[in-house]
Give the backbone structure.
Amino acid sequence: MIHICFGLHDADGRYSKFIGTTMVSIFENTITPPPISPSVAVHILHDATLTDDNREKFSQTAEKYNQSVEFHNVEKLCPDEINFLREKLADKINSRFSIGMFYRLLMKKIFGCGKIIYLDADIIVNLDIEELWQKDLQDHPVAAVPEIEAALNKMIVDKFVLHTGIVKTDNYFCSGVMIFDLDKFDEKFFRNGVQFLIGNPKCESPDQDILNVFFSENYLKLPQKFDSFANCDRYWKLPVAKKIYHYAGNNIGLNLKDEYNRLWLENFSRTPWFNFEVIGRLGERFYMENDFDTLQTQLLIRICIEHQRGFFLSPADVEKAKFIFSIQDDEPIVEIRDSNSLTELFKKMSELHGQKVFFLFYQNYSLLRKTLNAHGFKEFEDFVDGRTFMTREQGGKWIPEYNFIRSL
């Protein structure tokens, strides 16, 4: 029997479908499904946020493929550990991270011993999971793919545990796909991990950083195919292959010309979560976004009647913006060249305050907006996000389609 574990905290009831989609991808690719007894047992570590409806859908998914699913309520099985976690890391849990990411750290407490695969919910298993299960851990407590390999050398290296030297970059692994040998885990692992986060509050990926701190010097390095970042494969224009794909960073979209989107959506469409309500909610989101865009355009028309325009953009985009926005010779352009460019923008906006509205073509618009607000400038009075009024092909701003999918 292959044992696979997920952690689940589902505050709005709409996250469960991602685990359900991963389950379908596993079952669809199980080469020899058993005629009588299951060959795969899925274990869901959950809390009180698991609804009866979602529980039933998980069960339906397993039954459809003649596999099994078991539910483990961590709040009932590990009350002391959960209370300890909520007490010590209340600021992180309430503001930045889902408590569900910590549930996998309780597998030793819940299962005691044995071998188990852990998967994140943003995973599509596009190969027979037996291939991963049969990996010999060679006396290592865990097996995982080094993140630099999972990301095809596009790994983000500005991580606290890396630049402080706590973990070596080449050893840092992605924790989205892991095999655990629970026999080699210390009983105090969970509390020791939480204590590490208390002492190192700058960790960006709490659960993954804990695992790396304890195991990065002693884990079996798996081939890239077992945890391949979909967005990186997409970037290098690699075709979909027999791999385990990790849609890290919410890289799931609705464009069916993209075969990685299609792969996820094909598996999602086979789940009980894909029904007529999904279509309705998707339509509602598009209506809402369309109305929002229309209101923004109306505001823009009004302020452009009352004000002239200014532009803040990179030198490479000047000619494109002149064509798209019909920029006139007397309309000021501040070019984004270096750190002094923001100072130049503030100066120019101050000189022309009340006279011009500036179109900002800045990658981190939300941060720039906060800075301008702090200087007394107001959005849709003194400045707007210029990328809002450009198409994707023109380099404009777009709302990640994952937001639509998440809300279904």
The chain has a mean pLDDT of 91. The chain has 18 helices and 14 strands. The two ends are 33 Å apart (CA to CA).
